[in-house]
Amino acid sequence: MEKTVKDHIIDTLDDLDEDGLKRFKDELGETTIQGRKIPSRKLKKAGIVEVAGLLISTFTKTHPAEVTISVLNAIMEVDLAEELQGKTSADLPARTPTPPPTRKYATLKELLEEPAGPSRIPIELKVMKIEPPITFTNQKNETKQVAVITFADPTDIIQGRLDDMAKIKELEEEKCILLRGYIIAKDTKHQITTLVLTKRTKFSTTASFDVSSEVLERMQPVPLIKANTRRAKKPITIEGKITSVGKVERVTEKGNKVPIKNITIRDSTAQIKLTLWKDKTRIPIQPGDYIEATNIVLNSYLSNNTTWLSTIQVKEDPEKRKSRSKVTDTASCSNAC
Questions:
Q1: I want to staple 81 with a disulfide (CB 3.0 to 4.6 A). Which of 72, 221, 229, 323 is the partner?
Q2: Alpha-carbon distance 197 to 177, whole Å?
């Protein structure tokens, strides 16, 4: 007997672990499509079959498989979203052709207004920074790697998550590219929009362009004295010297016990606490290390936290670099004299 759309949705949700299903329900409860929404109270204690039933009954006219794919992309379950799209492609609605844009390509400011999901809009971007790969275990207990890449155009900056590490050789810092076949992912909890780059994503070299000083400034680390005074949930980059590293503790997050570790870092302006979550607790750092931490968010309790996309790198302490530079300058002067 041929499987229905509901059967495919059930099979897909069954591949999520307990935490993944909770994230899916949380995101679904905040999703409104054409005025339709599933109340969070109905989702809270719903099992997989019940969630699938609610999707079918609520979004019959707006296509439940498409809604499910959009929510999966939003919670970074890209593999499952692509699998479900392949299984239900015949049932997905034919997309209305997008009217020709007034510009040749979209800007990041325009792209940030687009809904989550696969995008057909080509965009020209400059590769600003390629972070070291992050190793993680997915829902199917497979070990994989991703790389976080910072892109910019003349209007804004955005983070990209490269899932297909074979493509990393096609990218290099300061290179301008035309990007096609990517996915827009929206983390509503942290108000972060990212680009997910998969095997289907295409890169091609394009004409070089400059990034404004205003955009470049957004990439610079925020002084720690401002880290606790900015608006909550806006991701930033910070850097400073570690003054203490706490022990790994376990806290309850959405019903699951997850590891956290508190560290304190300081710069010339202030000292703050930073909470490392989950796999970030395994990063080998110690007091005295000078680190750069990206994609740090401030929660409603004014506590700085890492996210899934955060990276932490040990760097050379600027004070040591200055001292070495002075020694070099002194030695050069002595030789010249």
A1: 72
A2: 13
Whether 312 shows a pLDDT value over 50: the answer reads yes
Torsion sign, CA atoms 187, 190, 193, 197: negative
- With a CB cutoff of 8 Å and minimum separation 6, the contacts of 265 are 224, 238, 239, 240, 241, 242, 243, 271, 272, 274, 291, 293
36: its two tokens: 């339709």
Residue position matching structure tokens 């002595």: 334
Q: Which two tokens stand for residue 254?
A: 């959405």
Pairwise CA distance, residues 76 & 193, whole Å: 11
- C-beta of residue 16 within 8 angstroms of C-beta of residue 24: yes
Q: How confident is the model at residue 190 (pLDDT cuts 50, 70, 90)?
A: low
Task: Indicate yes or no: pTM above 0.85.
Answer: no
User: Can you tell me the distance from the alpha carbon of 233 to that of 295, in angstroms, rounded to the nearest whole number?
Assistant: 10
